[in-house]
Amino acid sequence: MENIFDYNLDEIKELLTPSFRAKQIWHWLYAKYENDFNMMINIPKDMRIKLNTKFNAKNLEIKDIQVSSDGTKKYLFETFDNQTFESVLIKMRDKQNDDKGNIISSEKYTICVSSQIGCKIGCRFCRTAEDGFKRNLSAGEIVEQVVAIKKDNNILPQKRVNIVYMGMGEPLDNFDNLIKAIKIISHIDGLSISTRRQTISTSGISPMINALGELNIGVGLAISLHAVNNETRNKLMPINKTYNIESIIESVRNFPIDARKRVMFEYLMIKNINDDLKNAKDLLKLINGINVKINIILFNPYENSKFQRPDIETAKKFVDFLISKGQLATIRESKGIDIDAACGQLKYKKEKLKHKNSFT
Ligand code: SAH
Ligand code: SF4
Fold it and tell me: By the number of CB atoms within 10 A of the CB, which of 39, 213, 234, 346 ranks highest?
């Protein structure tokens, strides 16, 4: 059986006559979150039967949901081949003024999507890296995470949602599937989430950053820089021996100008490794002349992790220094830390799944 979410609109059109049926099916999938072809009642019965014999409209099963005290939810998905991976729904309060100047507070959603099961890159501070690499997620498996989470939370199709490719895996190491997924997610007849609301986070595979730039699809880019010299970065992220800091900076400089405005440099701060002001000064030198935002992430410790979280005062000093020099910089709020849903903490726990299965 094939995964219907792996197909873009043109590919479905090619399969069906008349081709307008494709749009109707997409409406069921992406605006009504319908996972059963039999329920797509404006589609002729014989076509529904045909679809049922070829496709699955539900390929991911929600195996577990953990809810954090701050409202963050972590989803454990199981795939057709019994692999598991995680995605995270982050809720934030969003305050806006209406036309009369009243403050309206509403919920803002960000979905943190996985691109691979495991990861090949092997960063020393990352929990996902510990289990090694299993396989790429297909385009459909990337798309369906968003559909399933929107459905599970009754998030209306028109509600604005941000997508960050910051879950498990290195998105640019699964380039073709990622791009196909982004196009389906942003398609007006698909999930209709603009590429401007989608951000790819990468460990810095410079040739793929260049390839992404050439596509010029408007998606935001976040670079996991984490160190200001190659010596330190080599130790934290072995990939730096292949694509070093200079090659990454060069790729960012060549990124399309519009999208470059929204490039973010993520700086994972680790106690006594990269947290003093000398690093902040070198960071400024490194990005001199490029218009970027810096986002400081405090290392999230996990069981048996080798590093320590710096104290917040150290991080504040670092960020204040950057700001005092006119650099846009923030400290990222750690969401979902109590359920291990924060950045870099995603790793499927086998014990939990077994436990759950014994009751179902
Ligand atoms: N592979 C991509 C995206 C997934 S990781 C990348 O590396 O960018 C998302 C972010 O979490 C990255 O910035 C990563 O460096 C960071 N991260 C990994 N482990 C972490 C940890 N233990 N604490 C805090 N952030 C971590
Ligand atoms: Fe992979 Fe990103 Fe983790 Fe590095 S930080 S091992 S690239 S998921």
Answer: 346
Q: pTM for the whole thing?
A: 0.93
Return the pLDDT at 166.
95
> Ligand 2: which atom is nearest the Cα of residue 203?
7
Q: How many domains is the chain built from?
A: 2
Task: Tell me if 22 sits within 8 A of 9, measured CB to CB.
Answer: yes
Evaluate: CB of 123 within 6 angstroms of ligand 2.
yes
Alpha carbon of 35 to ligand 2 centroid (Å): 32
Q: What confidence tens digit (pLDDT) does each residue in 127-137 have?
A: 999 989 999 99
Question: If you measure from the C-alpha of residue 129 to the centroid of ligand 2, how many angstroms do you get, rounded to a whole number?
Answer: 6
Q: What is the pLDDT of residues 106-120, one digit of tens each?
A: 789 999 999 999 999
pLDDT tens digit string along 262-302?
799 999 999 999 999 999 999 999 999 899 999 999 999 98
Do both 146 and 247 map to the same domain?
yes
For a mutational test of ligand 2's pocket, the pick from 112, 115, 119, 174, i.e. the residue with the most ligand atoms closer than 8 A to its C-beta, is 119
Q: Are residues 158 and 276 in the same domain?
A: yes
Range of the domain at 89: 82-357
- Residue 65's pLDDT band, with cuts at 50, 70 and 90, is very high
Q: Average pLDDT of the chain?
A: 92
| Å from CA of 3 to ligand 1 middle | 29
Strand locations in the chain (E): 2-3, 55-56, 61-67, 73-78, 84-97, 103-112, 116-118, 133-136, 161-165, 198-202, 220-224, 264-269, 293-298, 329-331
- Alpha carbon 243 to chain centroid, angstroms: 22
Tell me which residue has its CA closest to atom 3 in ligand 1: 166
pLDDT digits 0-9 by tens, 31-58? 999 999 999 999 999 999 999 999 999 9
* Pocket flag, ligand 2, residue 121 (CB < 6 Å): yes
Ligand 2 proximity of 203 Cβ (cutoff 6 Å) = yes
Residue 61 lies in a domain: no
pLDDT of residue 234: 98
48: domain CATH number? Answer: 1.10.150.530
Instruction: Say whether both 109 and 174 belong to one domain.
Output: yes
CA pair distance 39, 114, nearest whole angstrom: 29
Q: Tell me, what CATH number does 164's domain have?
A: 3.20.20.70
Q: Is the CB of 239 under 6 A from ligand 2?
A: no
Please list the active-site residues: 86, 343
